Amino acid sequence: MPQPLRARAPRPTKILSKRYERTSATDRGYDHVWRKVSAEHRRRHPFCVWCDQNGQLTFAKLADHKYPVSDGGPMFDPENRWSLCLTHHGVKREMEEFARRTEQLDRLPIWCDDQAERPRQFR
Ligand SMILES: [Zn+2]
Predict the structure, then answer these.
(1) Which of 24, 61, 93, 97 has the most crowded CB, counting CB atoms within 10 A?
(2) pLDDT, position 6
(3) Ligand 1 mean position to 91 CA, how many Å?
């Protein structure tokens, strides 16, 4: 049974930050299937790849998409994911922003796999 539409709340006058405007993880396709795939990926690859490239072993907190799903990257391609710690996930997001700004999204998977190929500020 369809629910009646709620009256629209007036638009907030305060500008919300981007973070609040984002849709939920579930809305973006990160459902239970992804959670299972992500957990399995981290079982097989428990350490942060980026830390490992820096000669450190740190447990990964998440499986990240090298080419972001929000930019059209494949959700479930095993080649499109790598394990990251929270720190490097943050740096990766900055690297994504940089790639969008400079129209180099296609370079992201290369930058993920080969640290030497990355722009200097993200090594
Ligand atoms: Zn790391």
Answers:
(1) 61
(2) 64
(3) 9
Residue 38 lies in a domain: no
18: CA distance to ligand 1 center in Å?
A: 25
> Is residue 21 situated within a structural domain?
no
Interatomic CA distance for residues 52 and 16, integer angstroms: 37
**Residue 24 within a domain:** no
Per the structure, the count of domains in the chain is: 1
User: Is there a domain that residue 6 lies in?
Assistant: no
State the chain's mean pLDDT as an integer: 89
CA of 12 to the centre of ligand 1 (A): 38
What is the distance in A from the centroid of ligand 1 to the CA of 101?
Answer: 24
Domain of residue 111: give its range: 46-122
Query: Which residue numbers in the chain have pLDDT < 70?
Result: 1-22
